[in-house]
Amino acid sequence: MADRLAPVCEAIARLLSPHAEVVLHDPATDSVLAIWNPLSKRTVGDPSLLGELDELTPVGTDVYGPYPKSLPDGRRLSSVSAVIRDGEGRPEAVLCVNVDRSAFDAAARILAAFAAPATAQPAALFAGDWTERLNETVADFVRDKGATLDGLSKSDRVELVAELDAAGVFDQRRSVPTVARAMGLSRSAVYQLLALSRKEPADADPA
Amino acid sequence: MADRLAPVCEAIARLLSPHAEVVLHDPATDSVLAIWNPLSKRTVGDPSLLGELDELTPVGTDVYGPYPKSLPDGRRLSSVSAVIRDGEGRPEAVLCVNVDRSAFDAAARILAAFAAPATAQPAALFAGDWTERLNETVADFVRDKGATLDGLSKSDRVELVAELDAAGVFDQRRSVPTVARAMGLSRSAVYQLLALSRKEPADADPA
DNA sequence: ATCCGCCGTGGACAAATTGTCCACGGCGGA
DNA sequence: TCCGCCGTGGACAATTTGTCCACGGCGGAT
């Protein structure tokens, strides 16, 4: 089957080149079956890191995303995935397309900046629903750490709180209780983590 | 002098057409001397509404902006202005270029949306510098009303506060004192306006 | 098994902020 | 001149924020 998918993958890769890579995964071994136009350095046989899909809401049958990802060098990607099943409904392959957004981001920035400092009337962007963004941020962090909420280590928590702090979350009214709820902690625990994170800049383990 | 400026104005208008208008104002009578490629419906002789310039920080000698403005139909503009002086330093004319940003905005939105719901890592967008956005919002409002800060009517103030409220500004910690400063009012005045604005949805003058 | 240290919990409290109220003074119109 | 409206500043109550600490659970070392 993977063979029959190959032309499709290559076609997509060519269409979007050089801004996208196409990866075919083997869900059984959780490894890369084939890759076209790699952006990341992965090659055939590398682990897939596909567990992530479990977390995501499929938008339709076996279709996931688009969802954001990042390359180690900081470039941002938009990704979609599709599960290919055999005649009996068993997953046979997972096809992922990762588009490098940086070129589009740059162009958008150029256009958006055209003769304009402009914030204008969309004042409605001040707060939006910061509570949702908070949850997202926490969820992302947890996912990145590959753990669950209560499986986080202390230093993980400090790190997360530091991130939220840097993001200005705590300038929001009533944020501490909300963060506490989002992290599944007590209010005081959050204050304690916050104190820690503000004490030591960004160390891992002091000797 | 205005005559000698005409070719310049027309050239600029043609270069940017159909996305920009060029207006030549007479600061003495505060009216429109000439206009090329009008976006607004102003014609020669109309009042200029130029007092606004006093409020803005010039970026260089007699050069203002770019600053955002809006057309009655909602299109957003980016504007720059320049003061032309005679041999003795008296203002002789004011040249304004207003670029219709809507096309650029649209293009930017398309690019920005490319394959992306993306919240990604820019968590740093939570608060940004809401204080600056606050000032901008206030300044925009004042400019739109064509008045100065202390020239606002009571209902204007209520309206502005309502806008800020809707924008979620007051969910920000310590926002009331800051808003008070930005509006040149006392803290209690802001609370009073806020109470009013929350009482009546959006009426002008109840019978 | 027991002890110890780490960590989070909850609650008590002090400090700060937020929201209300009101008397006073300026200002414009009848 | 008198009146009504409006903002000011300050007093105060209500809430929220931040700190502290004793208690209890849990895992590792003894």
Could you walk me through the main structural features you see in this protein, from its secondary elements to its overall organization?
2 copies of one chain form a homodimer. In chain A, 40% of the residues lie in helices and 21% in strands. With 207 residues, chain A is α+β, with helices and mostly antiparallel strands. In chain A, α4 (130-145) packs parallel to α6 (175-183) and α5 packs across α7. Chain A binds chain B through residues 66-68, 70, 76, 78, 80, 99, 101, 104-105, 107-108, 111-112, 114-121, 123-128, 130, 133, 136-137, 140, 163-164, 166-169, 171-173, and chain B through 66-68, 70, 76, 78, 80, 99, 101, 104-105, 107-108, 111-112, 114-121, 123-128, 130, 133, 136-137, 140, 163-164, 166-169, 171-173. Chain A binds a DNA duplex (30 and 30 nucleotides) through residues 154, 173-174, 176-177, 185-189, 191-192, 194-195. Chains A, B: Residues 4-108 form the YheO-like domain. Chains A, B: This is Putative transcriptional regulator YheO. Chains A, B: It holds the Pfam family HTH_22. Chains A, B: Residues 134-194 form the Transcriptional regulator DauR-like HTH domain.
Oligomer: homodimer
Strand order of the largest sheet of chain A: 2-1-6-5-4-3
Q: What letter string, H or E per element, gives the SSE order of chain A? A: HEEHEEEEHHHHH
**Strand count, sense and closure of the main sheet of chain A?**
6 strands, antiparallel
How many alpha or pi helices of chain A?
7
Which consecutive residue ranges of chain A, at least 5 long each, have pLDDT under 50?
50-57, 117-127, 202-207
Return the structural class of chain A. Answer: alpha+beta
Question: Can you identify the CATH class of the largest domain in chain A?
Answer: Alpha Beta
Which two chains share the most extensive interface? A-B, 43 and 43 residues
Shape estimate of chain A:
globular
Number of strands of chain A: 6
Give the number of domains of chain A.
Answer: 2
Known CATH architecture of the largest domain in chain A: 2-Layer Sandwich
Radius of gyration of chain A: 21 Å
N-to-C span of chain A: 53 Å
Q: Calculate the mean pLDDT score of chain A and round it.
A: 71
* Percent of sequence in beta strands of chain A: 15-25%
> How much helix is in the residues of chain A?
25-40%
Domain Transcriptional regulator DauR-like HTH (chains A, B): 134-194
Protein name (chains A, B): Putative transcriptional regulator YheO
Domain YheO-like (chains A, B): 4-108
InterPro entries (chains A, B): DauR-like (IPR039446), DauR-like_HTH (IPR039445), YheO (IPR013559)
